Amino acid sequence: MSRIKDRASEIKNENGNEKITQKDLLFYIVGRLDDLEEKVQLYDRDATKIKTQIKIFWILLPIALTLAGVIGSLM
Fold first, then answer.
1. Dist. CA 19–CA 34, nearest whole Å
2. What is the greatest pairwise CA distance in the chain?
3. For residue 30, what pLDDT is reported?
4. The CA-based dihedral angle spanning residues 15, 19, 24, 28, taken in that order and rounded to the nearest 10 degrees
5. What is the pLDDT of residues 7-54, one digit of tens each?
6. Where are the domains of the chain?
7. Residues 60, 62, 66, 69: is their CA dihedral positive or negative?
8. DSSP category for residue 65
9. DSSP of 1-60, one letter per residue?
């Protein structure tokens, strides 16, 4: 509980110790949630790219090994 009070006092000091209305707090929380949503979408795109790269790697690996075996047997 003291961590919450410490964090609240930090925010009050950053705000100049002015009064904060519930409306201001609501808009702040909504803004933070929008920022989080954008970050989640960015991370989701990155994760999708990585998963696609891994799938392509596993598809191309047997093909590359087969070609290396064929080329090695010809030499």
1. 24
2. 82
3. 83
4. 30
5. 777 777 776 767 777 777 788 788 888 889 889 999 999 999 999 999
6. 2-74
7. positive
8. H
9. -HHHHHHHHHHHHHTTS----HHHHHHHHHHHHHHHHHHHHHHHHHHHHHHHHHHHHHHH
